Amino acid sequence: MDRHIVFSKELTKADTLVLKNLEADIQDVAAKPLSEGLGMTSSQDPMDLTMDPDSCIISEEEGIRDTAALQTMMGLNDPKNPNFEPTVFNSWDLSSLGKLEPAFDRLLKSYIRLGKSVVRNETDIVFLTHLILYFTTSVPSALLLFTHFSWFHGIFHVVMQVSYTGAYTLMMHQHIHGRGVLKKDYAWFDQTFPYILDPLMGHTWNSYFYHHVKHHHVEGNGPDDKSSTIRYQRDSVLHFLHYVGKFYFLVWLDLPLYFISKGRYQVAARQTFWELGSYVFQYTMFKLNPKASLFVFLLPLAVMRLGLMIGNWGQHALVDRDEPDSDYRSSITLLDVPSNRHCFNDGYHTSHHLNPLRHWREHPVAFLKAKHTYAANGALVFHNIDYLMMTLSLLRKDYAHLAKCMVPIGERQIRMTMDERIAMLKRHTQAFTEDEIKAKFRKAQ
């Protein structure tokens, strides 16, 4: 099965190490007869991919391989390690830049020193890079549209903003979980810049924080999660359109009602204030300059909300029928370029649900350390596909493609045929009835 593993040259160093490690595990299992491994007995459900963690026998060779990969990844993350490498740019690793001209080398080193003095974590100089990018392009472009509008500029501005939204949103993902990304000396700016940039990127003020941190991570795609996928047939276009439409037109009402239902009245009031305040601001700007507001605020808002729902659908489309309230079995892990190189390891969604406060650079390390636990819990890993294509592949019912993108972990997954993978994935997209939800979700009981 390892013939389907594809290594992109643009993968992060950590993703390359993880994927090579998993490929070696696949080859190890393929090289030994079934009788030496766990296998499946005739009485076992072929779709039950869980296994006893104690039955995972780690060979000496695998142990050495895992240790070497982990030491390399941890060294890249540790400022005290000589191999430490901060993230300065999304598209390039520092080590990939090669030998620079002396002037550029001095400039880069000066910028890195500056970045380390500004960002909260020394790995995260890339956040300063992005803030500089947005305040030197998005903000001036928006101001220019309001003072000297042109249709060409408006279209160019929207295209530019859409290209920024993924990285910006995942930078804000780190921001809302960590309550900032800059050092305390810059707390005033750290807490202020979202109020300037959020509307330009399609976010309403503080909505991401309230929906994602205060709501989604509390409910975990369960019955009370207003963005839950469990009641939908996740390969149905009609169900997907209903899912997106509900978020588009009712999130302003659904979210405060959720907080009220949980007795969190102050949170409901604050969330409503910021959501409605955003709409009032955008309406006011539209009255002042309709054409500029269309391109600066309204189109980014429409694109962002569609993108958020496409992403969440892809992240939580494959939900185990038997244990749907398990973080391992209701979310997935992606080893791909768009999610992990350009969007700060967003592909490690299971790892994020297991520990929402885990720093984005630590996800590959945490995954590799716990890969046998992932396997024991029937977790799903994919590569060479992002959340957008995951969603589109499901809506096209292209399970053969998804099966090829799957990176099997644990012997039972590794020994599955392509047809068995497809059958398992189809089973994971089935909608849950209300009776099933009551029976299988502990919070619903």
TrEMBL record:
Q: Which Pfam families match?
A: FA_desaturase (PF00487)
Q: Which residues form the Fatty acid desaturase domain?
A: 150-382
> Which residues fall in a coiled-coil region?
none
GO terms in the biological process aspect are:
lipid metabolic process
Keyword annotations of the record = Membrane, Transmembrane, Transmembrane helix
Keyword Transmembrane helix annotated: yes
- The membrane-spanning stretches of this chain are 125-145, 151-170, 240-260, 292-311
What PANTHER family does the entry give? Answer: FATTY ACID DESATURASE DOMAIN-CONTAINING PROTEIN-RELATED (PTHR36459:SF1), ORF (PTHR36459)
Please identify the protein, giving its name as recorded.
Fatty acid desaturase domain-containing protein
Organism annotation: Gnomoniopsis smithogilvyi
> What are the top taxonomic ranks of the organism?
Eukaryota, Fungi, Dikarya, Ascomycota, Pezizomycotina
